[in-house]
Amino acid sequence: MVKIGIITGSTRPARVNLQVAEWVKDFAEKMDLEAQFEIVDIKEYDFPMFNEDVPPAMANKEYSQDTVNAWSQKIDELDGFIFITPEYNKSITSSLKNAIDYIGPEWGNKAAGIVGYGSTLAVAATLSLRQILGNLNIATVTPFGAFSLFTDFENMTTFKPAEIHNATMENVINTTVNWSKGLKTIR
């Protein structure tokens, strides 16, 4: 049994990111795989902007140490990830990049699927995230989930994906779970 964290990629008050994460979790749980899925909401960690002289785990600052320790422990206990990312200015959000940057080794030798959404299906954000994750030794799977703000969201606020995405999402989830099982053997 592997543990897959569904990582939210936005902290904005009016975000739709959590809706997408919840939909992915429900979809994955119906697939009857040998995996546990949980939503890991970066908003709950309330990271200050990463602006340290040394990595936060080495910094001696009380304001971030508890948050960093909790984040480190959560990511370390997971075997793989499905990142839910909106596209902002052809990239991922600063809050997601900030959360990723707070730790390092905890990410390594794990698999990740990516589910993006935006006016252009979050293609640029997905490519950006793949590069970032590759630098942390995370194996990103293909294909990736790609949702349109215009056709998969009602009034751009309520997530209602078209059924045409189901086959792709099954592939993203299956491949993430399978790669997570395989990579678990080398950690």
UniProtKB/TrEMBL annotation:
Residues 2-143 form the NADPH-dependent FMN reductase-like domain. Pfam families: FMN_red. GO terms for molecular function: FMN binding; oxidoreductase activity. The keyword Transferase does not apply. The keyword Flavoprotein applies. GO terms for cellular component: cytosol. InterPro entries: Flavoprotein-like_sf, FMN_Rdtase-like_dom, NAD(P)H-dep_reductase. Keywords: Flavoprotein, FMN. Belongs to the azoreductase type 2 family. Homotetramer. This is FMN-dependent NADPH-azoreductase.
